[in-house]
Amino acid sequence: MGLPKRLTEKQRKFAELIVYNEGRKTGRDCALEAGYAEGSAMVEASRLQNPKRFPLVAMYIGELRQEVQKKYAVDYQRHIAELAKLRDDAAKKGAWSAAINAEHMRGKAGGLYIEQKIIRTGKLEDLSEEQLDAELKKVIDDYSPILEGVEVKELREKVKQKTKDTRLKLLQQKDKI
User: Fold this and answer.
1) Of the candidates 15, 51, 49, 20, which has an alpha carbon nearest to the alpha carbon of residue 34?
2) CA 160 to chain centre
3) pLDDT at residue 65, as a whole number
4) Is the pTM here over 0.85, yes or no?
5) Cα separation, 88 vs 156, whole angstroms
6) Residue 112 and residue 106: Cα distance in Å, rounded?
7) How many C-alpha atoms does 47 have within 13 Å on its Cβ side?
């Protein structure tokens, strides 16, 4: 007995169920739905996926998986177009937050936004008065464009006072111990 020349209807249905329900259904569930008997469904599912026993079924499963990967592949143009579609659909429904988020994500994908995170270690309480003044000057110089309307002197005084208060609390806690 040689290899069959084509898939049976059950085999074809099993392969499609396996691929299109990947991660949602087990091989046994797919075999049952394809029409295999309750008692042998798990064994049949295993056999059908074995390329040595059923090369046509395994090959068909591979082809279907390639089609699915190609269909849902993410590339730049498709990604941007899909985000634009989602934005437009959201805007039509009046879901402005969703529309703005979709447009924001398009901007990120297009490289219009740069995410930057700066992680600093250490505490302000550990700095000397001179070091604190130097750090404050640096922060104010770096962020002056967004601090419009805030008096630099007032800002320095607030930070200094907060630092002094924190140091005082730490000293009081140490005295209690």
Assistant:
1) 15
2) 40
3) 92
4) no
5) 46
6) 9
7) 9
